[in-house]
C-alpha cells in the first residue's frame, strides 16, 4: 500500500513542482507566473471549447503512450512511437488506393486495421532487432522513426500525392463515410473512446491474464523467465506488436478524424509526448488515461499562452521538458525513509549510520 | 549524364562530408567522452539544438563569432552537466534522463530562440582549400569550417589523454569498472559529471557549426537528429576518438547525397536519400552487434550495450 501511495504522490508533486519552476522561468521574460497558471488551466479545462480541444489531443497521446508502456513492461525502452504513428496514418490513407472499400464504418474499421498493422510491424522490427540481432531498442526505434518519416514524406509527396494539393502535399482524402465524426456533435471524436478502451483492455491484459503476466515476468526478471521456460523472445515481440499497433492506430485515428488525409501535419510530435506520458504514468496503462488528458490539456493551452500572454509556442515543450526531468528526479525520493526522517527525535545525525545497501539502478 | 555532372555530385558528397560531417564529429567526440566514463547521453540531441541556438544568439548579440562559439560550448556544457547531476541521483536511469533532456533542450532552444529566427549573425570564417581548382563545385566543396581543425585536434587530444594521462585513464576506469574506481577512492559520480559536461561542451561546438557555418542560420529544424546518430557513430567508431573522424566524414557524406543529387536536377527520392545516414547506422548496428555479447571495445559499465 505504501508503494502505491508513493506511485501517486510523487508524480503529482513532480508536476506541481514543474508548474512552479515553469512559472519562475516565464517570469524571467517578464510574464506574471500567476497569469500563466491561470491561462494554462483555462486553456486546458476552462470551458467546453477547451475541454474539446484537450480531449482531442489526449486521444493520440493515450495510444502513443501505450507504445512505450507495453514494450516497457517487457523490459524494452522503445521511444520510436512517432515512426509507428506516421506509418499507421500512411497505411490508413493508402488502403483505399489499393482496395475498393465500403463507404461506411466497415471501411473505417479496415483502414484502422491497416494503420494498426503497419505500426505493429514497425515496432516488431525493433523487438526483432533486439532479440535476434542484439541491437539496443532505444537507438534502433529512434533511427526507424526518422526512416519512417522520410519514407512517409517520399510517398506523400510522390506516389500517393493528390495533384490538387499544391502547397501542402497530401494524399487523397478518405471518402465521407469512412471519416470518423465527433461524439454527439462535439469536436471530440471517437478516437478518444478507442484510446480509453485500449488503455483499459491492455491494463487488464497485463494485470489479469496469464500472457500479460508472462510479459511482465520477462520484463521484470529475465532470469526468472528463463528458469521457468517462458518464450521470452516471442513475448517481447507480442508486446512490441501490441504497442506498435496502438501507435499505428493513433496515426489512423488522426487521419480519419482530424486531417482526413495523410500530410505533414501528422508529424506533430505525439510520439515523443507519449514517451513523457508513459514515464509519468509509471508505465501503468490505467494511469495513462488521466496523464494523457492532463498533457493534452497543456498542449491545448499552448495556443492560448501564445495569444493571450505572447509567449513563444515552444513554452509547452519547455513545461514538458521540466516535468520530465522532475519526474525522473522524484524517483530519487522514493527510497528515502520519510517516517524515520520525520518521526525520529532530533539529534539523529549523531547516531552512527550503517551504510545503506547499494540498490541496483532502474527506472 | 556528363562528366561535369558526376564531378558536381562527387564534389557535393565530398563537400558534404566535410561540411555536414563537422557537427557529426563534435557530437560523436562528446558522446565518446561521455560513454568512456560509463554513461550514455541521449540528451546530446537537446545539447546540440540548445547550443546551436546559444551560439547563434551569442554571435548575434556580441557581434563576435568566437564569443558565439563560446556561448554554444557553455550552453552545451551546462545542459550536459544537468544530465550528469540527475544521473548521480539514486534510481535515476541515464537513458530516460537523456530522453528528458532531449525534450527540455529543444524546448528551451525554441523558446529562447524565437526572436533569433530572422536576424543574420556573423559567421565562422572559412578556410579555402580549393583555390587550385577551376571547378566551382570543387571550390565550394573545399570551403572548410574553421572549427574542423579544432575538432581534429580534440580527437587527437582525446586519444592521447585516454591512453597517456591520469585523467583519461580515470575516465576509462569509471567506464570499465565503477567498483574498481570506488575501491581506489575516486568519486565515480564526480568523474562522470566532469566527463559528461566536457562532452556536452564539445558537442556544443557542433551546435555552433550548425548555426554559424552550415546551414548558417537558426531555425527550429536546424538539427535532424545528429545528436542521436552520435550514439550510433560512437558504436561504429568502437569508442575510439580517432575513428570518430572517419565515421563523421562517412555520415556527413551520406547525408549530403540527397542535396547533391538535387543540385544537379535529380529531385526524385530527396527524402529517401535524406534517410541514408539512419539506414547506414542501422546496417552498421546489424553488422557489428551480436545477440548476447558485448560490442568490441565498449566500456563495461555502459547500459546501452549490456
Q: What structural class do the secondary elements of chain B suggest?
A: mainly alpha
In DSSP terms (H or I, runs of 4 or more residues), the helix count of chain A works out at: 14
Portion of residues in beta strands of chain B equals under 5%
Please give the alpha-carbon distance between the first and last residues of chain A. 20 Å
State the largest interface: A-B, 52 and 51 residues
Cα Rg of chain B: 19 Å
What percentage of amino acids of chain A are in beta strands?
A: under 5%
Topology as H/E string of chain B?
Answer: HHHHHEHEHHHHHHHHH
Distance from first to last alpha carbon of chain B: 49 Å
Share of helical residues of chain B: 55-70%
Q: Helical stretch count of chain B?
A: 15
Task: Report on this structure.
- The complex is a heterodimer of chains A (363) and B (306).
- Chain A is mainly alpha-helical and 363 residues long.
- Helices cover 71% and strands 0% of the residues of chain A.
- Chain A has 14 helices and no strands.
- Chain A is globular, with a radius of gyration of 22 Å.
- The two termini of chain A are 20 Å apart.
- The model of chain A has no long low-confidence stretch (mean pLDDT 90).
- Chain B is an all-alpha fold.
- Helices cover 69% and strands 2% of the residues of chain B.
- Chain B is built from 15 helices and two strands.
- In chain B, strands 1-2 form a two-stranded antiparallel sheet.
- In chain B, α1 packs across α12, α2 runs parallel beside α7 and α4 runs antiparallel to α10.
- The longest helix of chain B is centred in the middle third of the chain and has 25 residues.
- Chain B is globular and about 65 Å long.
- Chain B starts with a helix and ends in an 18-residue tail after the last helix.
- The interface between A and B is large, with 52 and 51 residues.
